[in-house]
Each structure stands twice: as structure tokens, then as C-alpha cells.
Sequence to fold (267 residues):
Amino acid sequence: MNTRVSIFSFSARRIRLGGLVLTSLLLSFSSSLPAQTVNQILAKVFVARGGLAKMRSIKSERVAGTISFGSEASGPFAVELKRPLKMHMTLSVQNQTMVRVFDGTQGWANNPFAGKVNPDSMIDEDLKNISEEADFDGPLVDYVRKGNKVELLGKDKVEDKDVWRVRLTTKNGDVRYYLFDVQAFLLLKWEGKRRAEGKEFPVESYFRDYRDVDGLKFSFQIDSGSSAINLTQKLVIDKIELNVLIPDSEFTKPAAPDAPAPSASAP
Fold:
């Protein structure tokens, strides 16, 4: 991934966020090892977050913070999530605002960074990404019911910490890796690929600054990029609200922006 490309031509990989943000936000085993051992590790992961019962009791989330792309640009973002699989995201950078919306079936997005001002219906590739982002439980919760497969690959290292490396294969065949602290069982790193405009790009995300929000643990800083030495996107979360009232109207097709008023000097 060429991370020095202009922010306006990099919309598919960085500004658009796609799976990267929500996935970062919300990331929140058939192997040679015994299945029960694998399930015990997952169980500890869920307990570390706050427990499955608490996770399933959350009906909506609102997340707000700042996203920066190296030294190139930064701005505020906000994400609203509601069961089942509804999402509304806004991102403002350099006086331009992107909106991505998913109602559980259909999705819409504008992309002013690529000259697309009006909200257009999402293509299949984008719908696949946003439907995964809207699942704020994550793909490891109820993975069998969701058609996913998981595998414990053993221990690894993330910076100076020992981690369990878990491979997830989605029902669509996509492969991701989750690396959990062997002591705290919190997610420290995510590895995978994202498809945009018909191409695949490697992505690594590092999860830091875990805090408690109403009994659930969330990472409040997520650094992402194509490799550990090329982390060009940073999410700093300011506030997370759980079980907030979000009207369903938030997840309908966004209105087109108002046309600019004609100049008073126009003939």
C-alpha cells in the first residue's frame, strides 16, 4: 500500500474507512489442538471484554472521536450502531464530509474525496464490508451460527507481549488473524486484507488504551496501516455510549446536499 498518495486519491483505502475503522472499532478454530481448549480461550476472551451476557445486552452504540492519516489530514468521526446490523457513519476531513449508512439490507454512501457528492447505493463489495462492520458483537461471537470457522495457531508475539494467534475464516472465505494477550485476553492486534475497487490491501491494526464503559472493555486508540512500521491511520476515541436512543430514521438513505445558492451578480 502506498501510504503517501494524496488523501483525495486514497479514498478507497484510507479515507473511505470501509472495514478499517469499524472493523477497528468494533474488533472491539478447527486445528490440531483440542476443540475444547480453543473454546476455553475464546471464553476467556469474552470474559475479558465483560462477558457474553453483557455484550448481548447492548442494543445500540455511539462512538465519537478523531481520525488522522499521518501528517496529511485529520478530522472528527462518529459511528452509530443498532441491532440488527444497522450503521450510520460520518467522517469530516478538510471541510468535506463522508456519510455511510446501512439499514441491515441496503447501504448508501457518498465520497466527496473522489468527487461523488450524492449518496449512491452501495455495490456488493461495499455491502459485504459494511454488513460486517455493523455486527458490533464481532465475527468470533456465535461464529458457528454466522458460518465462520476459527482455528488456534498457537502463541506469538505482539511487541513485547505473548499472545494467542487465532485465525478466522469467514463464510465468504476471507481470512483474518486475531492476536490476544495471553494474560489479559484482550485483543492487541488484528491482521487481514481489505478489498476496495477490485484490489486487496494488507491491513494491520493495533489496539491500545483499553477502558471500561458500563462494564465492557473498549480500546480507545487504534493504530492501523499496511505493516507495523507503516501505521498511517490513527483512531483516538473520545466517547463511547451504550444503549443510547437512536431512531431508525438515522439508517435510511441520506439526503443529497443542498445545491449552492446562485450568485447575486448572476444574470
Summary: Residues 1-18, 28-36 have pLDDT under 50 and may be disordered. The helical segments are 11-15, 19-26, 35-49, 52-57, 124-133.
